[in-house]
């Protein structure tokens, strides 16, 4: 860019010609970095070994889980690592909608988890997804693993006119080519939880049942793609790869769910040495899942490591941006809830976010960027030098400049919105035709606030307010009326953001006595 600018000025063309000067980039795609985005499902930020290491420990105020994540630990030393990436609507499909479109669940088309009971929740065909943009910029785009962003239809390629599974409602889905948003290589499924018996439909719609623990199988397929076995990609094009690993994900109850070698690391440890968060209740039945959960984390770490070592072997590591994040977290007996996600608690909302771009990003821990799910798409495009191609309707922000330079003049977000929706009205067949926005909240650098409303009169029925600085394990729910100033400040920010994203709470002025929408 600087060279082009000099050329333009030397040519006496002046600043107005900058746009024109941008155009002639000889063999531009050869310079473009590759991008790999890996996101397992219920992987909480706390389940990373490096947070206990010097240089990382000082940037957080919680104790990390006692997990073995050697590959991610090494990767963290080479990456920009965020402390505060948030899954705004910490549930499978809504997060995926935001990740793909850069929009909040009220605009992505996916306000609720996708299944056949919910025709209102499916990825919008008309939106330009992150993969559409990469594809238009000359990338080969490949998707591996769990997608869970489509309303399932009876389109099983092997059984015409049938759904891909028999259970009702149908959750799993086949994604036909016209719904793949620029991905020209496909090895994916909707959602399915037999971790050692996964299945995938490939680019041509052929089904594969590899009988292998899914993250390791997907890593193998990604490595094969990187090596271009079978001539599956154009080696002259840059690539954009997304890998949606399902584990760690329930069930976590037997060696059908994780690898034995990983389970052996945790099986003999007493539960109180595994579930070390002071807000965890080890008397819960679910506590027995802890060794399986952490074994899944370690297995995912190894699968990720296999992708990294293939990149290195192939000499692709230098010009490849690699991101590791997740769909949302896992409460795992914290806060005495059986729901692993779908709550504003740190274990549910706070996700890993690590970005490696050798020689371009200086490794560091970034503890003052609260990243939201819709920010990921524009930020990925920005990191790849495609900031100018971010679709104008994207609601998230491109924070790539802050990854390149922590002093970049980019305004940092004051916090992240929390979103929980539930089924709204149903038709005579029991199909969900609307969603009800039962909770909204705001996670600032210091506080977490969530407000819940009654389904009938939309009045406040419950609130959560935590001082995450003083009370990192969110043990004390502060009463709103005793913390009026704090609530007013948080609600002011929340109102501003809900208005900006045109959320139903803004449209209906829900709880306007608390939330100033129009100031
Ligand atoms: Ca999920």
Question: What is the topological layout?
Answer:
Elements: H1 2-10, H2 18-22, H3 28-31, E1 34-38, H4 70-77, E2 80-82, E3 85-86, H5 92-101, H6 105-108, H7 130-136, E4 140-146, E5 185-189, E6 200-202, E7 207-208, H8 214-226, E8 239-244, H9 260-263, H10 271-274, H11 290-313, E9 320-324, H12 346-349, E10 350-351, E11 354-356, E12 364-366, E13 371-372, H13 373-383, H14 400-404, E14 415-423, E15 435-444, E16 447-453, E17 460-467, H15 484-500, H16 504-507
Parallel strand pairs: 1-8, 1-9, 2-12, 3-13, 4-5, 4-8
Antiparallel strand pairs: 2-11, 3-10, 5-6, 6-7, 9-11, 14-15, 15-16, 16-17
Helix pairs in contact: 5-13, 8-11
The structure holds calcium ion.
By CATH, the topology of the largest domain is Alkaline Phosphatase, subunit A
CATH class of the largest domain: Alpha Beta
Discrete helix count: 16
Major sheet details: 10 strands, mixed
How would you state the average pLDDT, rounded?
Answer: 94
């Amino acid at each position: 860019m600087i060279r082009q600018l000099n050329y333009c000025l030397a040519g006496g063309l002046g600043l107005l010609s900058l746009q024109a000067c941008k155009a002639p980039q000889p063999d531009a795609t050869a310079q473009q970095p590759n991008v790999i985005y890996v996101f397992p499902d219920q992987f909480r930020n706390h389940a990373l070994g490096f947070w206990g290491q010097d240089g990382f420990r000082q940037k957080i105020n919680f104790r990390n889980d006692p997990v073995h994540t050697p590959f991610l630990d090494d990767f963290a030393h080479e990456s920009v690592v965020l402390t505060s990436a948030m899954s705004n609507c910490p549930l499978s499909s809504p997060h995926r909608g935001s990740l793909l479109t850069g929009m909040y669940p009220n605009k992505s088309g996916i306000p609720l988890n996708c299944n056949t009971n919910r025709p209102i929740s499916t990825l919008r065909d008309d939106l330009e997804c992150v993969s559409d943009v990469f594809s238009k910029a000359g990338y080969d785009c490949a998707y591996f693993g769990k997608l869970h962003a489509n309303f399932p239809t009876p389109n099983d390629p092997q059984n015409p006119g049938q759904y891909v599974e028999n259970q009702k409602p149908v959750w799993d889905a086949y994604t036909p080519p016209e719904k793949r948003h620029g991905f020209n290589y496909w090895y994916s499924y909707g959602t399915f939880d037999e971790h050692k018996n996964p299945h995938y439909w490939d680019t041509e719609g052929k089904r594969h049942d590899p009988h292998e623990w899914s993250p390791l199988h997907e890593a193998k397929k990604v490595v094969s793609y990187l090596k271009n076995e079978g001539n599956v990609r154009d080696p002259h094009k840059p690539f954009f790869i997304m890998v949606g690993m399902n584990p760690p994900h329930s069930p976590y109850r037997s060696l059908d769910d994780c690898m034995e070698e990983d389970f052996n690391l945790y099986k003999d440890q007493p539960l109180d040495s595994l579930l070390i968060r002071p807000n965890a209740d080890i008397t819960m039945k679910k506590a027995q899942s802890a060794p399986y959960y952490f074994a899944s984390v370690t297995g995912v770490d190894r699968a990720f490591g296999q992708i990294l070592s293939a990149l290195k072997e192939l000499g692709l590591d230098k010009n490849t941006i690699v991101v590791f994040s997740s769909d949302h977290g896992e409460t795992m007996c914290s806060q005495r809830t059986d729901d692993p996600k779908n709550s504003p608690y740190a274990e549910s909302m706070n996700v890993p976010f690590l970005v490696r771009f050798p020689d371009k990003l200086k490794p560091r821990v970034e503890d003052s960027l609260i990243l939201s799910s819709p920010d990921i798409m524009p930020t990925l495009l920005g990191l790849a030098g495609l900031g100018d191609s971010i679709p104008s309707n994207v609601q998230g922000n491109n924070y790539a400049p802050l990854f390149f330079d922590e002093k970049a003049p980019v305004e940092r977000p004051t916090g992240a919105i929390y979103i929980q929706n539930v089924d709204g009205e149903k038709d005579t067949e029991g199909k969900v035709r609307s969603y009800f926005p039962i909770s909204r909240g705001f996670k600032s650098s210091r506080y977490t606030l969530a407000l819940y409303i009654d389904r009938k009169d939309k009045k406040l029925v419950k609130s959560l307010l935590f001082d995450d600085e003083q009370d990192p394990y969110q043990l004390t729910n502060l009463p709103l009326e005793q913390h009026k100033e704090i609530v007013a400040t948080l609600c002011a920010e929340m109102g501003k953001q809900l208005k900006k994203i045109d959320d139903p709470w803004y449209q209906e002025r829900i709880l306007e006595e608390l939330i100033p929408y129009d100031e």
